[in-house]
Amino acid sequence: MRLTSKAASVGTLTAVALLVAGCSSSADDTPAGGDAAGACEPSDGAVELTFTTWIPGIEEVVDVWNAANPDIQVTVQTGPNGNGGTYQNFFNQLKAGNAPDLGQIEYDALPNFRVQDGLTDLGACADVMAAQDDFVDWTWDQVSFGEDGHAYAIPQDAGPMALFYRKDLFEANGIPVPTTWAEYAAAAEQVKAAGGYITNFSQSDVNQFAGLVWQAGGTWFTNDGDAWGVDLAGEESAEVAEYWQDLVDRDLVSSVPPWTSEWDNAYNIGAAWTWVSAVWGANSIASGAPDTSGKWAVAPMPQWEEGEEVAGNWGGSSTAVFRGSEHVYEATKFALWLNTSDEALTLLNEAANLYPATKAGAELPALAEGVEFYGGQPIYDVFAEASTQVPAGFTWGPTMTQVYADVSDGFKGAVSGSGTLLEALESAQGSTISTLESQSIPVAE
Amino acid sequence: MTSTQVVAPVLARSTQPARRLPVPHKRAIAFFVLPFGALFALFYALPVGYAVWQSLLVVEREGTFGPARQVFGGLAQYEQVFQNGPFWTSVGRVLLFGAVQVPVMLLLALVFALLLDSPLLRGKRFFRLAFFVPYAVPGVVAAIMWGFLYSPNLSPFTAVTSNVDLLSADLVLWAMANVVTWVYVGYNMLIIYSSLLAIPTEVYEAARLDGAGQLRIAWSVKIPLVLPAIVLTTVFSIIGTLQLLAEPQVFRSFSSAVTSTFTPNLTVYSTSSVPNFNLAAAFSVVLALATFVLSFAFLKLTQKKGVQ
Question: Could you tell me which of A262, A329, A432, B66 has the fewest CB atoms within 10 Å of its CB?
């Protein structure tokens, strides 16, 4: 017995040693990165592309493309939203060398994918570079990282934020629609007195909080080309954190985790009355709270100072071509159609309330119409206004998945009574710096 | 005492090492072992070796978006593992979980198995299946189902859940323990039950002749005889506990108390989504070693007792 087990372990060790020896050579040919910019040539013959996204109803949009382009057939695969699992899949697929040709990536995750060398530089694709001026400036900035002659994705939509609120309930209870955050806090008390919650604090989706910091004029990262600056707990972040901490402490906001059935239900039964969210959130409410159709309205986001006109941005996606795609040219053709053609943009807006990232997109006839779920209000007018009020200069870091996870861990603690939101940001500041350092990503002192 | 005397030879026979003879048909044996060996190498040794190798690499790059290079870094990743507070907190958490949940689950499994084996019980086939059915429910589905049962407003038992928040920081670990127990009791019961069925009936006859009742037979004959099965299920359970992933991953969306580093495996998962595959590999290797050590320590401990 002893002999055999020893023999077995020797065998296993040998196997491991062989494996290690075998793998060591493969480590040398890790791609050096960024070299894909050289090629953007059409392929011969028919091409099949794969596209992973989480836009609801995308299948019908892609069907329209496939019917018109028999030589470039796109197979679409849908998954959970990016931080909900799709990014993790992308990273794994990139590591394994079997990523799809195209993928949906929100602007905040682009640096993360670029630093992991997951994106194809589309700078060599003449069509893409020619489309540069079609896009709203800040969205192009996000995909080009401000570098001339480069593009690491094609902008798709923007997420200007506004206030979704239950018009009927606010009117019935005589609560004025808040225009400042101070009024919002006051309204929260009245809503609580009327038996509801004004909203939930989004402890597990930190993206919303980032949008609020964005509105307040803060930024979490800076990049001077040599090193990243990390500032999760700066002045503006602290102001936003303390504001929400106060609402949490006074039990004026609920702690229902976002994106759960419980959260949908709270909106559906009228237990939650407002949501400060992005334009695509129009779809989330409509699908999550079908019983409240016609009772909602949209107003501009509450302001920090009376009379200001500043909006935050939450999300907004781009379509990226992953490293390793053999049909970059065809992939960009599809991505450009998807994100710039009136046909596709109208379909995307109908299917998922996406707000186009193109300048011409704002003039789409579909966006001028009233939306039934929101009592016939032409809600995109509010978002069109908001999209011009988003401050420039918010920079995303290269490890946002980790930042969101760590901030969320702290936020979760804060809403369940241990620690504060500001402490969560301070602790994430430290863990973010150590994560960057462990990946040899330079951090400014 | 009489019963234990009966037990001794049975146990001895089963544990006696077979005498080593020169092996004939070496080629045939090699032929039959080959499929297993190939699959073992491909799907076990190779991934483990790859993970070990990944854990020894570190990333180097220059500038904010400089291309990454993987270079050999020795034990640098392991240094980070041992300095990582949340990881060790999560290890402590699953150890606490295991120390409570494993004995409770196995005790229940043993009781159910003894009841099924008892001549007094009716409808054995039904109960055998009924207890086993939860194991046929995929772990993720079970976690989602229980997540809904626990949730304060959607649960069919709102009278309970709106007063006692089972998803709060104090209780969520035990809420998960309940899910795991619910899923695995039947599985462990079946292992113990099949081992009970293997006990020869003469042993029972002898015990009855000595005047033992059903309870006494259960206590002095059945339990000692199924001890190897209980040891086996304990080892499986220890391994399962340390590798807890599906339940906390699902509960993360339901509960504010479940963080991205709630269990060691969840830490591995979160680290690989940074993505920092090298550090995630180092976490996995350490976790695997800890699992080996704990399982073998338990086996050694129980074997020593057996000798005495």
Answer: B66
The reply to whether A95 touches chain B by the CB within 8 Å rule is yes
CATH of A161-313+392-438, one of 3.20.20.480, 3.40.190.10, 3.10.180.10, 2.40.10.10: 3.40.190.10
Evaluate if residue A22 carries a pLDDT over 50. no
Best residue of B21, B60, B64 to probe chain A, by most A CBs closer than 10 Å: B64
pLDDT digits (tens, 9 = 90+) for A245-272: 999 999 999 999 999 999 999 999 999 9
Binary contact (A440, B49; C-beta < 8 A): no
- pTM, to two decimals: 0.85
- For residues A89 and A392, the model is more confident at A89
Task: Point out the residues of chain B with pLDDT beneath 70.
Answer: 1-20, 305-308
Out of 3.40.190.10, 1.10.730.10, 3.40.50.150, 3.40.140.10, select the CATH number for domain A39-158+314-379: 3.40.190.10
pLDDT in tens, A67-88: 999 999 999 999 988 888 899 9
Fold of B84-307: MetI-like fold (1.10.3720)
Per-residue HEC secondary structure of chain A comes to CHHHHHHHHHHHHHHHHHHHHHHHHHHHCCCCCCHHHHCCCCCCCCEEEEEEECCCCHHHHHHHHHHHCCCEEEEEEECCCHHHCHHHHHHHHHHHCCCCCEEEEEHHHHHHHHHCCCECCHHHCHHHHHCHHHECHHHHHHHHCCCCCCCCCEECEECEEEEEEEHHHHHHCCCCCCCEHHHHHHHHHHHHHCCCECCECCCCCHHHHHHHHHHCCCCCEEECCCCEEECCCCHHHHHHHHHHHHHHHCCCCECCCCCCHHHHHHHHCCCECEEEEECCHHHHHHHHCHHHCCCEEEEECCECCCCCCCCCECCCEEEEEECCCCCHHHHHHHHHHHHHCHHHHHHHHHHHCCEECECHHHHCHHHHCCEHHHCCECHHHHHHHHHCCCCCCCECCCCHHHHHHHHHHHHHHHHCCCCCHHHHHHHHHHHHHHHHHHCCCCECC
State whether A439 and B260 contact (CB < 8 Å): no
Q: B258–A412: do the CB atoms touch at under 8 Å?
A: yes
* A/B interface, count of CB pairs below 8 Å: 146
CB contact under 8 A, A23 and B53: yes
Contact B67 A117 (CB under 8 A): yes
What is the residue extent of each domain of chain A? Answer: 39-158+314-379, 161-313+392-438
Q: ipTM value of the model?
A: 0.81
